[in-house]
Specification:
heterodimer; A: 111 residues; mainly beta; 6-stranded mixed β-sheet; 5-stranded antiparallel β-sheet; 11 strands; B: 113 residues
Amino acid sequence: GQNIDQPTEMTATEGAIVQINCTYQTSGFNGLFWYQQHAGEAPTFLSYNVLDGLEEKGRFSSFLSRSKGYSYLLLKELQMKDSASYLCAVKGPNYGQNFVFGPGTRLSVLP
Amino acid sequence: GAGVSQSPSNKVTEKGKDVELRCDPISGHTALYWYRQSLGQGLEFLIYFQGNSAPDKSGLPSDRFSAERTGGSVSTLTIQRTQQEDSAVYLCASSLSSLHEQFFGPGTRLTVL
């Protein structure tokens, strides 16, 4: 099975940088995904890591360490619109329920 | 539109009634997932379809829940004899394969009175 842990809530200031951590335990690994979900809306895909290291995409970057079962999402130059929940999801070795979402981190960006 | 669509967007039903939720995935996507999300909670996996393979039903919470996918495209999630604890947003997602990112529909908000 898989177990994924994220902080429940975080608060940051507009223009700042915030790092959202995700730790996971899995019997197999085929990639880690980050999704953004605004209140009342469906999740949207942000990033995908399958190899160790940093993937950068504009203001958002995602890091993976497979040996540590650890990932983080880095958001730079925070904007008010970044206030949302950020979901970490891990893809296991098989299909279906081996694609497991973490509980999500609710980020509030303050002026 | 090229995205995942779901219908209805909202469904209010009485306890004990049956409901059907529909999902139209992105054309060409072979993988289709159903999730449930209660208020303020994470996504709970329900069922997964991949091409013509047998679906992975391991996430269905009880035998009142069932789903089918006809012709490898449209999927229907059926909940029989609804209970109040079934109230949630039901999200459908599709992807090119199980290794690709998922694209989510807007969800169906189910309220069981």
